[in-house]
């Protein structure tokens, strides 16, 4: 549980940094960043779970 929350924070920070570094990449607000980071974290966890069960 704690590692999952940490991954969520790391993903949000990386999205924010990407937004600052690239001109063509734009995120409107913090809520959008959080939702995108949540989606990335969930997809990453599902992929790892399915790969581990094979």
What does this structure look like?
The protein is an all-alpha fold. Helices cover 80% and strands 0% of the residues. The protein has two helices and no strands. Helix 1 crosses helix 2. It is elongated, with a radius of gyration of 13 Å.
> Quick check: average pLDDT?
91
- Kindly name the structural category: mainly alpha
Quick one: overall form? elongated
Percentage of residues assigned to helices: over 70%
Computed over alpha carbons, the radius of gyration is: 13 Å
| Cα separation of the termini | 23 Å
What characterizes the major β-sheet? none
Beta-strand content estimate: under 5%
Number of strands: 0
Tally of separate helices:
2
N-to-C order of helices and strands: HH
Query: Which residues form runs of ≥5 with pLDDT under 50?
Result: none
Quickly describe the structure.
With 54 residues, this protein is mainly α.
Chart the SSEs and their pairings:
Layout: H1 2-21, H2 30-52
Helix pairs in contact: 1-2
Labels describing this entry:
54 residues; mainly alpha
